[in-house]
Design goal:
N-acetyltransferase, GNAT_YJDJ, 5 strands, Aminopeptidase, 2 helices, alpha+beta, Gcn5-rel_NAT, Acyl_CoA_acyltransferase, about 90 residues
């Protein structure tokens, strides 16, 4: 844990690297909205909490930028719904 989520603007995705493996969330910025299209973790990272840590970083970025999140990805939607402290970010 303790990895940093970085915004790979060129690839339009947020990335979290852990042990040389990447979890990422493809996104699109639309005005004040942050649309999360897809969240994926490399196979070795699945079940390790990496995708959850990635989402934690994403909601913190969205909040700091004053954005709302439109989760098109089922995982992103379910994660935000489970973490009620971020429900105000749902669009």
């Amino acid at each position: 844990m303790g990895s940093t989520v970085r915004d790979n603007v060129e690839r339009r995705r947020f990335e979290l690297e852990r042990n040389g493996q990447i979890a990422f969330a493809a996104y699109e910025r639309r005005g004040s909205d942050l649309v999360i299209r897809h969240v994926e973790a490399a196979i070795p990272l699945r079940g390790t909490g990496a995708a959850s840590e990635l989402m934690q970083g994403i909601v913190e970025i969205a909040r700091s930028e004053g954005r709302k999140i439109t989760p098109l990805c089922g995982y992103a939607w379910a994660w935000i719904r489970r973490h009620k402290e971020y429900s105000d970010l749902l669009n």
